[in-house]
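Please fill in the sequence for the structure shown.

STRUCTURE ENCODING:
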């Protein structure tokens, strides 16, 4: 339909010394319903709606003056090609009726349209991820379209439809409303307001629970990571403070099997303090063992001979 603001014409109204400016929506092939609602509102401000729906008490002279004003306003709200089509009509009522027939249709089409709206209204249901404002607007639009066809969906039906078609997450507030409020007198907007208040409280509570859950997950995850930490020095599955400290000292962390099921240490990254080679501790150094044997043999050779 395009930008609605570009399809409006300003209308200046002076009443009781006060000047007011209204925007007349230009009628097109798709916006008749909202157009009719807005034009009627402007007519009511002027006090000229009675020329469209006359009554027996209205004086002919007054009607004539109001009729001219109504026609002028209608011309402001119609595209040029449509003005030419209804230019031969001399009363605002005739123009209004002609536009209504053209866009709404004759009685048979009108009734079919009403039945379609009723069917849409009954099948309407709010999706789990749908905004309450969006869903309430859908209900309002159907009610507005029905009203333009002379068919009324009153607040009682709208309220019951709203409460009966929202997702299960609203069940608590719906039950409270049905138990403590009078649905026969409650307005549709009031029902929407109560559900929105509940929705806001639920969002706040959910947000707090999410923050608490993330903190708990982080703490648990850190504990699990520390439990499965692998020492960068010895390759041991325990904490490096335990594995590396034992292995560098007196060889308690050696790779000899203890028979108790514990995993052997990986000595590929262990550097010997004796020969500075990788793969063993100082007390396991082959160079150390060879030197000890050499010293022992040397001592035996130098042992004095008894005379």
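FILLED IN BY: designer on duty
SEQUENCE:
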């Amino acid at each position: 339909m395009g930008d609605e603001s570009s399809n409006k014409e300003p209308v200046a109204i002076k009443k009781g010394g006060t000047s007011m400016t209204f925007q007349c929506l230009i009628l097109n092939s798709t916006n008749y319903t909202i157009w009719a609602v807005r034009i009627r509102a402007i007519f009511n401000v002027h006090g000229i709606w009675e020329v469209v729906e006359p009554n027996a008490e209205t004086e002919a002279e007054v009607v004539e003056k109001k009729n001219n004003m109504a026609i002028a306003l209608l011309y402001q709200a119609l595209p040029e090609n449509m003005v030419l089509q209804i230019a031969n009509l001399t009363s605002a009522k005739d123009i209004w009726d002609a536009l209504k027939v053209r866009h709404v249709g004759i009685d048979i089409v009108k009734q079919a349209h009403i039945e379609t709206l009723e069917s849409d209204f009954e099948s309407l249901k709010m999706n789990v991820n749908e905004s309450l404002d969006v869903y309430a607007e859908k209900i309002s639009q159907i009610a507005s379209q029905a009203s333009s066809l002379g068919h009324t969906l009153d607040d009682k039906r709208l309220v019951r439809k709203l409460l009966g078609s929202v997702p299960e997450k609203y069940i608590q507030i719906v039950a409270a409303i049905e138990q403590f409020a009078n649905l026969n007198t409650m307005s549709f907007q009031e029902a929407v307001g109560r559900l929105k208040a509940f929705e806001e409280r639920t969002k706040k509570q959910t947000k707090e629970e999410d923050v608490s859950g993330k903190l708990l997950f982080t703490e648990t995850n850190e504990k699990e990571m520390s439990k499965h930490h692998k020492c960068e020095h010895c390759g041991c599955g325990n904490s490096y403070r335990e594995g590396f400290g034992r292995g560098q000292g007196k060889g308690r962390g050696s790779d000899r099997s203890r028979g108790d099921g514990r995993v052997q240490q990986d000595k590929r990254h262990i550097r010997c303090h004796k020969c500075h080679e990788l793969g063993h501790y100082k007390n396991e150094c082959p160079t150390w063992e060879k030197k000890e044997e050499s010293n022992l043999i040397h001592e035996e050779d130098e042992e004095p001979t008894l005379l």
